[in-house]
Amino acid sequence: MNSDDAFDQLPPLLVLYSRIAPSQKRAEVPDRSSVSNDHVWLKRRNALAGSVTSASGGYHAIYLGDQWDASRRLTLTFGVRADLSVLSGRPPYVAAVDSTFGVRTDAVPSGMVAWSPRVGFNYRLSSDGDSPVQVRGGAGLFAGRAPLFWLFGGFSAYGLAQRTLQCGSLPSDAGAPPAFGTDSRTPPIACAGGQTFGAATTGEIDVLDPQLRLPQTLRVTLAADAQLPFGVVGTIEGLYTRARSALFFSPMNLREPVATDRRGRAMYGTVSAAGTAAPRRVSSQLGDVISVTNQARDYAYDVTLELRRESRVADLATSFSYGRTRDVQSPRTLSALLIDNWRFARPVAGLQTDLALGTSDFDQPVRVRASGTLHSPWRRFATALSFFYVGGSGFPFTYVAGGAQGRGDLNADGAAGNDPIYIPRSAFDTAEVRFGGTPADVAAQQTALERFVEDVGCLRSQRGRIMSRNSCRAPWMSLTNLALRQSLPSVREQAWALELQLFNLLNLLNPRWGRVQMPTGTVLASSSQIPLLAQVGATGGQDAQPIYRFDPALRRYDYDNYDTYYQIQLAARYTF
To answer: Which of 140, 196, 497, 547 could form a disulfide with 190 if both were Cys (CB 3.0 to 4.6 A apart)?
Structure first.
């Protein structure tokens, strides 16, 4: 089996339009922009003129497998899959990154074959073909489709397209505006006096390890199926997953921590009295440089017990699962700018290079499922009533510091919103936590935070230390759906059916049931890091500490979300 997938051409990442009054007599000249008398256009382009880069290539895969009946009881399956990604395009070369870090931004992982062998077995305790018990299992390496969205970071973010040159008559301008030209293909890149872009760029630069391996996991499973009394079939299955090559996002342009704060947090820079952070860069000419490499520490395990029974009256199934998931980072598909996968993948209080495992954002220890279909005794114009219930542990999360205008970067690494908070022994002790505002405001915040921490077990148990990653968990989550299907008369092998579907039946029965409670401020699509304290400043001195504001009216959980409310859907199905 061979398949080729062409890489789509990237669209413009940024189109900026602004109007400048002619009376100001100045022009802002971004990198390779087209400029008219009173308009400015900015459009990212390719290696020399922005960052719209065509990344072409192909993805190829082949699988060979066979099944061998070793005996009347034992069946073995063997297979091997080979995946090959080829990138013919290359990101732009940034000399400053090469000279500073010794890595090339135009290098891409291409041409490496990911081999994925696997083996499985099925053993029946009886050789008559109708064994009441069978044991099955297998082990192998598995690689999915290449995560091209993440790899495109190297093609779309290389720092050069965000520089802006401002020409005009103001004191802050670099020089007089250039002469107007009508050819948009050759826009001016310098002011009238020759002033042009400086060497510095604060734009994000993403660097792909040329030896980067695409994500691949080892999976081992063992299961047993048995015929139980009353026609029930039982299954118990265990699954273990271990990452052989997972992606790891880390910042390169940060110096080693200069110190630790009073709570033991590694400090990568300084925090001003206004609460804004200044990271210490390896190169002051560069901004964030995000490296994409591999790590192989993530793992997960899961044990499931399932019971099911089928009959003319009803088909029923129920299962219980227990498992844990541990990983170094839990990246989301947020944007082609890989800084998001670094800062939102995990909260950090220690070293950025630390590969310590933590509770994954996707960890759900307990899951319960129940489903079934009740069949009508009549077969002509049959009626069926189906239900589905799924319940499980709530998602894990970490309380972090927030803040407006760049505040909330407690470790000064240049990323706000990913720093876990310190849980004070007492909110009334200013040596433990400080609040801003009037004395009355401070007193109200102290009382509210003390009550909030005392009422939340995961916070109460961590008083006196920085909270651990994903050490809090949302309440149990439940969902119950119901569907009623009615068959209608068919005409010449063309069948019709009506179906009434109820989503979140419990909420329909009682408005207080079926609520999906999430911590206030949750944005699950991006992160499990929930802002709790808003930084407004910092104290001075070597033993500085953040100054916060806490909303006394903050609720622990909010159920005003799409999944909380019931929905009713009426559908017609036509089969021909």
So the answer is: 196
Q: Which residue has the higher pLDDT, 345 or 91?
A: 345
Q: What's the token pair of residue 179?
A: 């002469």
Q: What is the pLDDT of residue 529?
A: 92
The pTM assigned to this predicted structure is: 0.81
Positive/negative CA dihedral, 208, 211, 214, 218: negative
Q: Please say whether the beta carbons of 492 and 486 come within 8 A.
A: no
User: Which amino acid is it at 473?
Assistant: R
Asked whether the beta carbons of 105 and 94 are under 8 A apart, the reply is yes
CB 97 within 8 Å of CB 205: yes
**Mean pLDDT computed over 370-380:** 92
Residue 293 pLDDT > 50: yes
Which helix or strand (DSSP H or E) is residue 148 part of? Answer: helix 148-151
3-state SS, one letter per residue, for 402-444:
ECCCCCCCCCCCCCCCCCECEECCCCCCCCCCEECCCHHHHHH
- Rounded Cα distance, 321 and 365, in Å: 8
Mapped onto helix, strand or coil, the DSSP state of residue 169 is: coil
pLDDT of residue 332: 80
- For residue 167, give the amino acid letter: C
| Residue among 306, 332, 293 nearest 228 (CA) | 306
CA atoms within 13 A on the CB side of 576: 3
89 C-beta neighbours (distance < 10 Å), count: 16
pLDDT tens-digit profile of 235-253? 999 999 999 999 999 999 9
Return d(Cα 349, Cα 264) in angstroms, integer: 8
Task: Check if the beta carbon of residue 424 is closer than 8 Å to that of residue 413.
Answer: no
Q: What is the DSSP letter of 263?
A: T
pLDDT digit string (tens) for 161-199? Answer: 556 677 888 877 888 889 888 887 787 888 988 888 765
pLDDT of residue 456: 92
Q: Is the pLDDT of residue 81 over 50?
A: yes
Biggest distance spanned by C-alpha atoms of the chain: 94
Which one-letter amino acid corresponds to residue 333? Answer: T
Query: Contact, 123 vs 73, CB < 8 A?
Result: yes
Contact (CB, 8 A) for 381 and 251? no
Q: Are the CB atoms for 155 and 10 separated by under 8 Å?
A: yes
* Tokens (6 digits) for 560: 């005003």
| DSSP 8-class letter at 7 | P
pLDDT above 60 (res 147)? yes
Looking at residue 31, the DSSP 8-state letter turns out to be T
Q: First and final CA of the chain: distance in angstroms?
A: 32
The two three-digit tokens of residue 438, written as one number: 């009037």
